[in-house]
Amino acid sequence: MTGLPSWARGFACLSVSFCACGQEALTVDYGCSDIALGDLVLTEIHANPDGPDGDREYIEFFNASPSSLSLAGITLTASRADGGSPKSHRLLEGALDAGDYFVVGNAAGATPVEHIDYSYGNALGSLRNSDGSVSLWCGDRLVDRVSYTRTKDGRAQELDGDLAPHHETNDDPNAWCATPEGVTGLGDGNFGTPGRRNSSCAIAPLEGTCVEGGSARAIVTPRAEDVRITEWMANPAGLDADFEWVEVAFDAEADLNGLQLGPSTEDLRVVVDGNACFRVDAGALVVFGASPAAAPRVDADLGFSLGNSGSRNIAVGLDGVVFDLVRYDETTEGAAWQVGQERGLCLAGAPDEYAPDNFGTPGEPNPPCPPLLEEGMCLDDGAPRKIVSPSVGQAQITEWMADPAAVENRLGEWVEVRLDAPVDLNGLTLADLTDSASTVESDDCLAVPAGTHVVWARSFDSSVNGGVEGVFAELSLSLNNRNETITLSVGGAVLDSVVYARSEAGAATQVDPLGKVCTASTRYGDGDLGTPGSPNSWCI
């Protein structure tokens, strides 16, 4: 709350002569005309303190409007339930922010009462312990009214804290209850929640039951075969403690009350706790998050931390009985592990970016995982087939730049290979005398037609590598300017090899169509000589 008056300022005015105080009240425009029916909602009444009522009574109301309200001019009235024997007090000042509570009371002593924002002194007398009514007015316009039939000694009457404060909701006697056991006391044997969210009036259900619609019913326990862990983010881009999550699928209707998750079968923690029935429909995907910001939709708290490295487990169960267990090794930052539609396990990627640099489908069906490929297989339009590797005579090293002049060696070196048959490039390896190697690795089939020239270069960027366009693969090995051997192989079988004693600065060495070796003479890119990715010139 902001701009609240001293707890006793209203009472101080009542201590002066009736005429002086009353005259001021009659001549000042308090501005409560802006307050409409239901803007202020009565939410708590402590009419029956433990022992003598004294100055421990209080009334709480809530600002249900979307803006701050000035309370000056609001009249508080207490009466019998039928409206008889009313006593009133007009608030002299006070302000209440939207969504906040304001507490008025009869505290008239010299010592302030911490939970009372404004004192009406003895203007209302003692509130009735039974068959009473309290109302808020602006002039002759009613803002809110509640009536009660009985109270409990030492305990406030509270509007159910599970319900949004509303001027119609508080008309229902069933929406109210005495402050329940377990609430921190106010002192002197009194209990309530003045100035804060009210207590829950929910029924405490019997074991094996949960509360739905105000009544207890039997919990529908999920079956093990209907519960599956389907996705988890163990290594998010951002703080793990905020952005980790686990998704669990339920294949049949069930209540999740008591559901457990944990990092092992021996360490299961309850992640759905509480009396209210947590019902899910068949096909539901429930997201358990480390915080509400973990995913676009978080349904419940995760309750434990996931591991980023090494062999890890996630288990789900109930009462210590494991329903499902998943295992994963290592993680990739920003990529969720997904169980595909056919139970394959894979990492999420584009286009499923649910938050900046985080990929997955929390709360949504997972896409199929790519099929697991056996050795020697690749994917051709998503379908696995055997890799067609070139044999001896079908792949030849035809050109290499060992000593570029236009750019540094580590940026401008490259090697060209010509394929003389329709083959796949998967698994092709270039190596040098130091056994440094560059191997083409891809799950997709990298098919090329006969006559294709492919280039391995130190960089894919033509603005960096000396102007080489259409680079096929990165060249990780470094070529010597003198006394070097370059070997092309696949699966350990050598396809071709070239040996050179020296190289000319700024010029590639090439093999012409007849197998003659010479220095290239055609300029490319930034000015060096060579024909990377194109047929070579004839050697003279």
Give a verbal description of the structure.
With 540 residues, the protein is mainly β. The chain has three domains: 9-191, Immunoglobulin-like, CATH 2.60.40; 224-359, Lamin Tail domain (Immunoglobulin-like, Sandwich), CATH 2.60.40; 395-519, Immunoglobulin-like, CATH 2.60.40. Helices cover 4% and strands 36% of the residues. The protein has four helices and 44 strands.
Q: Portion of residues in helices?
A: under 10%
Number of helices: 4
Strand content: 35-45%
Number of strands: 44
| Terminal-residue CA separation | 92 Å
**What is the CATH third-level topology name of the largest domain?**
Immunoglobulin-like
**Strand order in space, largest sheet:** 8-7-2-1-11-12
Q: Class of the largest domain in CATH? A: Mainly Beta
Radius of gyration: 39 Å
User: What's the overall average pLDDT, rounded?
Assistant: 90
Largest sheet: 6 strands, mixed
Report the uncertain regions: 1-28
Indicate the overall shape.
elongated
What tags apply to this protein structure?
4% helix, 540 residues, disordered N terminus, 3 domains, six-stranded mixed sheet, 44 strands, single chain, mainly beta, Immunoglobulin-like, 4 helices
